Amino acid sequence: MSEKAKQRVQVQVPSRLAGQGITGADYAAAKKAGEKWCKVCGAFLPRALFRNTQAYCEEHYTIHHRGETLKKYGLTPEAFASLLAEQNHRCAICAVQDSGERNWNVDHEHTTGAVRGLLCRGCNVPLHKLERDLTWAAKAIAYLTQGSRLAA
Question: pLDDT for 48-98, tens place per residue?
Fold first, then answer.
């Protein structure tokens, strides 16, 4: 590409970054280096620290996501902490202990929205299925006890 053509092609800085004082050259260099902008950190970070197309690095995504989840169920951070303490930092069903990194699922009554407790993902997913179809558990038990159909 000629020098004249290079001058015509300007790197467009996304509008969300323009107010941060990021130049086209800064943006192009970061993109070329495989970096992405974290809205909370206010810095370019390696793309590996992000989930897919999220605008937050992993650390801030967890905080942001938890805040959005709490808002959805009408919980304050203090109420969430209190509920987790009541459960001894364990899943309300299987009692797996909180490692401090876990993204707890807020279990709630689907008709009223009332919060029942905090669950690990491993318990939340099947509970959701069971809540929709109470015969599912019996079907799953029958399936597991029927034995293998294939010769070992």
Answer: 888 777 778 887 777 777 788 888 889 888 898 899 899 998 999 999 887
Spatial separation of the C-alpha atoms in residues 111 and 90, rounded to whole Å: 25
Give DSSP secondary structure letters for 47-99: GGGB-TT-SSBHHHHHHHHHHHHHHHTT--HHHHHHHHHHTTTB-TTT-PBP-
Angle, nearest 10°, between helix axes 58-72 and 77-86? 90
Q: Based on C-alpha coordinates, what's the Rg of the chain?
A: 24
SS3 state at 42:
coil
Write down the pLDDT at residue 4: 53
Bridge partners (DSSP) listed for residue 38: 43
Contact criterion met (CB below 8 Å) for 118 and 91: yes
Q: Find all residues with CB under 8 Å of 74, minimum gap 6, and list them.
A: 113, 115
Stated pTM of the model: 0.58
* Sole residue written with tokens 């709630």: 108
As a whole number of angstroms, the distance between CA 126 and CA 123 comes to 6
Instruction: Considering only residues 40 and 124, tell me which one the structure prediction assigns the higher pLDDT.
Output: 124
